[in-house]
Write a structure and sequence with these properties.
- It is built from three helices and no strands.
- By secondary structure, it is mainly alpha-helical.
- About 90% of the residues lie in helices and about 0% in strands.
Length: about 80
């Protein structure tokens, strides 16, 4: 999310040239950072539950299983090699 946010904010900074618009943009950026960062606002949880989990979750589950199986295999191999 950090890379996407960085690219978007850089693009908006390039597009906006007026001082008043730049001030509004920086205020919006600061607000969204605090909303995502602080736990009381639950901004990151809302983004995770409504965007990340529904769209990325099904695509990442098979990869997670493969990685888990590989880590288990590697651990068992190392344990057998030590004996």
């Amino acid at each position: 999310l950090g890379g996407v946010l960085f690219c978007f904010t850089t693009w908006v900074d390039d597009v906006i040239s007026a001082d008043k618009a730049n001030s509004i943009w920086l205020s919006t950026l600061t607000f969204s950072f605090f909303w995502l960062y602080f736990p009381k606002t639950r901004g990151a949880l809302i983004v995770y539950e409504n965007i990340t989990e529904p769209f990325l979750g099904p695509r990442l589950k098979p990869l997670q299983r493969k990685m888990s199986n590989f880590i288990t295999y590697l651990y068992q191999t190392m344990a057998n090699a030590v004996h």
